Write the structure tokens for this entry.
Amino acid sequence: MVANTNRILKDKTFDKSRWIQLPRDVVVGHGVLSQLPTVVADLCLPGPVLIIAGKTTMQTAGVEVLTLLTDAGFDASSLIVGDITYQKVTRVANYAQALHSVLLIGVGGGRVIDIAKIVSYNIDIQFISVPTALSHDGITSSRASIHTDEGVVSVAAHPPIAVVADTELLAHSPKRMTAAGYADIVANYTAVLDWELSQEKTGEAVSEYAMTLSMIAAELMVENADSIKVFDEKSAWTVMKAIFASGIAMSIAGSSRPASGGEHKFAHVLEQTVPGKVLHGEACGLGAIISMYLHKGNWKKIRDSLSAIGAPTTPKELGLSDEEVIAAVLSAKNIRKERFTIFDTDISEADVREAVAALYEP
């Protein structure tokens, strides 16, 4: 018998691979902003550091960060940033490159940190996330939202190489901001349901690990609603833990899928149609209640949880009309069409009107 004519059964080579980027250093707790110079030194990135912050957060925390770093001997400078558009992101990138910066530090809320993560991705340098508010779950994630002529889009970005979250500082942020961050995490319930629905309807691949971590974050919020509504430093610690877990879930998944479903598409529609009127997390919370109603799940659990901490649960509480909310739900399918959700199914206007009417039930 000739050897090369034989049929030899061989195991198929396992060639699947993934590249997951996660924060290297995470420092959370009371007064930890003072540890920032140590964190920067630990990263061993010799060269200029650029601190970016909004106009208000530069005064509340950015100046302190700049002082801490310069007193520690670092070559540090600062820049106030505004709206998150491609033009503004390009301006920050050009400024950082002109300084030959090797590290960005984003000090602020979601907008500032999103700018830092996009710029770090575009010019291939690292960044540190220093949140001053817990308004949404992008503090540790590898995705960012940016405003374009077509609306808000999600783009690839670097996750932070380090996170320094001072709970003393975060506890002094507006209660509305923390409540919005809480709502953004609770919306993970429907984001995961939509991901599972997409797997069933379109064959989209899912990550069970990312789903589980996302759900753990949502459950952490609901289970601790009574203590979080105090909005003290302990509340900031709990919400920060959930935000961190949700961000890691997105990094593991390689997309925002574990934490962004139809409720986020709904929120992006509102950001276009009534800009500046509602916070992102608030819109996601309301969208999650409606989404869960259409999924025929326990929507009252989500509503009651949000209500417990003072987050809006009806169009009226958001300062919107029922018609504006109904229109936003029906238009959600036009946002990120590649992302299949419950709002992309054959739901009727009557279905949506019924869901919105239910929001006012006792």
About this structure: The two ends are 82 Å apart (CA to CA). The domain at 25-170 is CATH 3.40.50.1970 (Rossmann fold).
